[in-house]
Amino acid sequence: MATIIDGKVISAQLLEQVAADVIEFKAKHGITPGLAVVLVGDDPASQVYVRNKVQRAEQVGIRSIKHRLDANVSQETLNDLVAELNADPEIHGILVQLPLPKHLDEDEIVDAIAPSKDVDGFHSLNVAALATGKPGLVPCTPQGSMTMLRQTLDDLTGLHAVVIGRSNIVGKPMAALLLQANCTVTMVHSRTRDIASVCRQADILVAAVGSQKLVNADWVKPGATVIDVGINVEMLDGVRKLCGDVDFESVSKVAGAITPVPGGVGPMTIANLLANTLQAAQAQMSA
C-alpha cells in the first residue's frame, strides 16, 4: 500500500511557520498583514472556501476583511472595489473568489488586481514571472503540491513528471514549478493520444482535471508518487462524498505515495494563500 501524504499535517507545519513570521513582521513594522477577500453571489461552495480562508487567516494573525457583493453586481462596481483595495496601504493581499457569475469577466478582474497584491498568483505578470523563473506570487495549489512532493521525495531532479490537465490555475503553473525543480515534464489533456500509456511512464503523476476517479491503477507506474488535485462530489448510498480525480482505492495499491481527497492538497492551498499574503506584505514594506 502507498504511503499517504497527509496534507493536514504538512499544512499545519506551514501555518505554524507563517504564524511565527507574522509575529516577527508585526514587531518589525508595527502593522498587521491584511487580506481582502471578495465574494460575489451566494454559491455554497464559494462560501465554504471563503469561510475557511478567513478562519485560517485569523488563526495565524493575518487581518482578513471580507467584501460580499450581490450576484448581479456590475463589472464597473467590482472593478471599482478592486481599485480601492489596490490603493489601500493596509491591504497587502487581494483575493476575488472564483468562479464569478457569468456576466462578469474573470480575466479582467484578475488582471485588475495589483500584481504585488495578487495572492492567488493569477495575474498575467505573476504568470510570466513563474514561466521565466523570476520572483513573483505563485498559485497556491501548485505551490502546495510542490511542498508535498519535496517532503515526500526530497530531490526531484531528473524524475519524469506527468501533469494531467492544462488549466491556467493548476496544470500550467504546476508544470512550470516541476521544470524549475529539474523534472522532465509531460503535460497530457483531453486531446492526448493513449493518455494512460503516457501516465504510466510517470515517476510523479499530478491529476488536475476535475473528472471523478479518472485515473485508475492501470494508469500508474508501480511506486509512482500521485498528487490528486481534483475535488469532485460522488453519491454513495444516497450520501454526498468528496472524491478526487484518482481512484484512491485501486491506485493506492500500486503507487508509492498518494494524496487523499479530502485531506490532501486542499489544506495546502489555504496555507499557501496565507504564506503568499505574508510574502506580499513583506515585499510591499521593502519596496
From TrEMBL:
Q: Which reaction does it catalyse?
A: (6R)-5,10-methylene-5,6,7,8-tetrahydrofolate + NADP(+) = (6R)-5,10-methenyltetrahydrofolate + NADPH; (6R)-5,10-methenyltetrahydrofolate + H2O = (6R)-10-formyltetrahydrofolate + H(+)
The residues covered by the Tetrahydrofolate dehydrogenase/cyclohydrolase catalytic domain are: 5-120
- Every Tetrahydrofolate dehydrogenase/cyclohydrolase NAD(P)-binding domain range: 139-284
Pathway info:
One-carbon metabolism; tetrahydrofolate interconversion
Under HAMAP family, the record lists: THF_DHG_CYH (MF_01576)
Known partners and oligomeric status:
Homodimer.
Task: Return the protein name.
Answer: Bifunctional protein FolD
Species name: Marinomonas arenicola
The root-end lineage is: Bacteria, Pseudomonadati, Pseudomonadota, Gammaproteobacteria, Oceanospirillales
